[in-house]
Design brief:
Layout (H helix, E strand, L loop, with lengths): L1 H36 L14 H4 L7 H6 L11 E7 L4 H18 L2 E4 L13 E3 L3 E5 H9 L7 E8 L2 E3 L9 E4 L4 E5 L9 H22 L18 H5 L7 H11 L3 H15 L2 H15 L2
Parallel strand pairs: 1-2, 1-5, 4-6, 5-8
Antiparallel strand pairs: 3-4, 7-8
Bound molecules: zinc ion (2 copies).
One zinc ion binds next to α8.
Length: about 300
């Protein structure tokens, strides 16, 4: 009897020990990946006057702080990105949204689905007219009255792209986008990103669209502004500062993301690389090649 008890204790202890080792290995492998990727990234430089960090005092959110703060995760089967299009889109603008949807699918590794504007939604309510951009929608009305009531049960987030200009509050001139992290809804305007119908500006509009959407969805998973590296999660005061921001995450933000979504870093990098291969963007293909090589080496 005593022997059996002893054997059982040994067995349970052994299993616990194995579990602890495998948890530690998993944890350590993300640390190692972060370390291997670090030399490929630039530390954030001192901000120039007028840049985001010159005007906003932001604190560094380490991976440990992020995990301890219990970030928003894909609880209860909420594992899809839903996209709504609000307004009239030209064929080129439709192409921007569909390419952005594909990019978000590959970046976040989450299925992307479209949802229509609800028939009874009056998104023009509270809109106002501007001389330069025409009708300007109330971004808060879109979040609260159009998006939040139709948030699908399996949605990680519901985001809307619009061709209308947006304003957040009556005393503000405009805003590129607005998101409610609590309600997991967000709206972004492509109105001020350039003219998608002009072939010379198409790529710029696309790049600004994916930078904004990737950044804001990152916030929806509780990732704060990155102050340590040049990173897609850097804050930016205007579209020109945004243009200088990478489309990719720094090693620490990537670790937060992959830990949160329980994803493999190499698979993330391989997926996003496949997008840039399709786009023939050799600079980014090179960056992803170097990243994959760095984490594959012993
Ligand atoms: Zn932000
Ligand atoms: Zn970062």
């Amino acid at each position: 009897m005593l022997n059996q008890k002893y054997v059982r204790t040994l067995l349970v202890g052994g299993i616990l020990c194995l579990l602890m080792i495998s948890c530690k290995e998993k944890k350590d492998s993300r640390v190692v990946i972060q370390q291997k990727l670090t030399p490929l990234h630039k530390l954030k430089e001192q901000p120039m006057p007028g840049e985001w960090l010159a005007e906003h005092k932001e604190t560094y959110q380490s991976f440990e702080t992020y995990v301890n703060k219990k970030p928003t995760r894909l609880d209860g089967g909420r594992d899809k990105i839903y996209i709504m299009r609000i307004g009239t889109f030209s064929p080129a603008e439709l192409q921007i949204v569909s390419k952005a949807a594909r990019y978000l699918w590959l970046f976040y590794g989450l299925q992307v689905k479209y949802v229509s504007v609800p028939e009874n939604a009056n998104f023009l309510k509270d809109s106002r007219e501007r001389e330069d951009t025409g009708i300007q929608l109330s971004a808060s009305l879109i979040l609260n009255d159009v998006l939040a009531p139709v948030l699908p049960g399996d949605a990680a987030v519901l985001i809307a792209f619009t061709t209308y200009d947006l304003y957040p509050r009556p005393d503000w001139n405009y805003v590129f986008g607005l998101a409610s992290l609590k309600k997991r809804v967000g709206v972004w305007s492509i109105n001020r990103f350039g003219c998608a119908d002009n072939p010379k500006e198409f790529d710029q509009v696309f790049q600004r669209t994916i930078r904004t959407a990737t950044h804001e969805i990152g916030h929806m998973f509780s990732i704060r502004h990155c102050v340590k590296y040049e990173c897609c999660m850097n804050g930016s005061n205007n579209k020109y500062e945004m243009d200088g921001r990478p489309t990719y995450f720094c090693p620490e933000c990537l670790r937060k993301l992959c830990w949160n979504l329980k994803q493999d870093e190499k698979q993330h990098l391989t997926r996003v690389r496949s997008f840039w291969i399709n786009e023939k963007n050799y600079e980014l293909i090179g960056f992803y090649d170097r990243s994959i090589k760095a984490i594959s080496e012993d």
